[in-house]
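Sequence in, structure out. Go.
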Amino acid sequence: MLLRLVIKNYALINELDIEFDEGFNVITGETGTGKSILLGALGLILGNRVDYSILFNRDQKCIIEGTFRLTSENKPFFDRNDIDFENETIIRREISPTGKSRAFINDTPVNLDILQEFAESQIDIHTQHQILQINNPLFQLAFLDSVAGNIELRKHYTGLFNQYKSKQKELERLRAEEIQASKEYDYLIYQLNEIKALKPDPENDLLLQEELNMLENADKIRNNIAFCLNKIEDSELGIMAGIIEVRKNLSEISVFNSSFESLLKRLESNYLEMKDIHQELINLHQKTESDPERLQLITQRLDSLNHLLNKHHLTDIIQLIGLEKELEEKVNGFESLAEKIERLSAEIKNIEKDLQSAALELSKSREKVIPALKEKLLDLLGKVGMQKASINISLQRKEIADFNESGPDQIQLLFSSNPGVPMQLISKAASGGELSRIMLCIKSIMAGSSLLSTLIFDEIDQGVSGETAFQVAGLIKEIAKKRQVICITHLPQIASAGQKHFLVEKNQESKFTLTTVKLLDYQGRVNEIAKMIGGNNPPVSAIESAKLLLKKN
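Output:
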């Protein structure tokens, strides 16, 4: 529960320090005095986002600090987030003049998600606009699950549902990918087979062009080689004959000078090289022959290779082989895509089976609690002046395609305020005041079935007056026996029922308007309640009525 709230430099508040009772706390004050500012400040330590215009003094930081009394049931949260657990835990939020925001739990820095998680386990704040939640089927189902104790069932169902939806989305993506791939598949296969049929060979195919050149110019090559051989072999004018003659003459004079010996050695080297050239020319002359069939075969292959290179805008056979591998990967990927789809479809069927089972269990648990819940609601409605009202809760199980995170059920909360009036959806049948009282009854039931330690009601008495106001006050007192209640109210009947009464006022000090909160003693409560009854200058009758109200409570 919330033991203490300290506010510094927030909106119209310079500094406040409020200590709450563990039971029923009421907060009153004229409209516009700043009661909503208290909720705004409290919201900051519960993880709400910061509006940096809220600083009272722009040169100082804003500090909101709340002290909560916890039980051992809260310890898992602290263990999970590696925070020191204290029975009296302090939550602090600081907003610097530069706009930087920091949050702490027991002096351990935390992010807003952790702060919000803590808040959801401790406090339920009910404001006027939240009355409309009654009309929301999601809220109605959450209420039903709270009463039925379906926390674990719903968590299990929601986990399966999210998994089911995620897998379905993945399946849709794969099928779309398959449709796109199938449009390309035949062409990919055609391209791949076209390359595979040629079996590109970088080493051999590069030599084909040279062979083609030889075959296309065989006659010219043989004639030129024959001419060269003739020049080399001629016994009188041939190159070899000349070299032999020069070699003989140099050999005869090499003994006379080392220069001749050096020239002779060089000539020997050229002589050997010339013999190799001579022999290679003889070999090439023998090999070079016209072969029309071979010429045609090579021409066709090179034409086919060049066709593919031009078709795919490639420059060489290495790139063509790279394209072949790329096409193979795409084809294999398409075939593995079909396998993925088959596996995922089977997985979805299994999840669907588990989801249907979890949905049925959740739905049955809801149906089981409805009769007792209706009876409890009618009893509470009777206590807040709606003795003649009728209420009904119906569930209709949907098909799996229409399931959502809240479960498989479509809920209808039907209401009639008077006998003989047909029941309709509560959104159509209940007035604003009736909705306020119904919400109070719902909050009362939820308080008994949840672990929340604090309920905050911001003018839940909307549209209520007279004897009904006493009945509403009585119900809030019953709630306060189980949970701490902080209630902002304009009704004297409710204000007089509180164990602690705080008055919010707006005061003009120097240049500034300040909001202050003070704890009222008995006489202060008498005066405030009398004003609520009879205005700013209450008559004696109003003062006496205020005393009677306090005495009654």
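Check: The chain has 17 helices and 15 strands. The first strand starts at residue 2 and ends at 10.
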